[in-house]
What we know:
CATH class: Alpha Beta
Number of helices: 5
Number of strands: 7
Largest sheet: 7 strands, parallel
Amino acid sequence: MAMPGNEPYVAVVGPSDPAPECYALALEVGRLLAEQGVTLVCGGLGGVMEAAALGASGAGGRVLGILPGRDRGDANPYLTVAVATGLGEIRNGLVVRASDAVVSIGGSWGTLSEVALAQRLGWPVVSLQGWSVVDQNGGSVVGPIAVSSPAEAVEVALGIAAQRRARP
């Protein structure tokens, strides 16, 4: 495995109370990312964040959790590093900014804020059963890249990360 810091960082975002199918998808995405030597970044709590962390840590990967509260004890047990920010939902910006690519699984308002922050920065977001965005007239806007499987989500995210990391 590469020295920490040299590998891509990919955020996996999603609801804290996902449907069982989304939990399973996040578990698989986390595993696949770890197998590619990626450091997984997440919000550090339950649901999709926990599933992705479990998948990654179970495959020997590194997981960075950026917590909304001040107590690292609130973190899920699958993180390699937990950063307690005390910032509440504002920490969503740190999750996005710390990453080279973002994979969104499922949807919640918090997830939508992370998708919106990434899109606002001009960073493509990979969406697996997640948000799509339309304009005020119902027309499609350039938004999350919809994928149909965990393997496709990881492939697209790694391509985005490689492009972003290649820029000066």
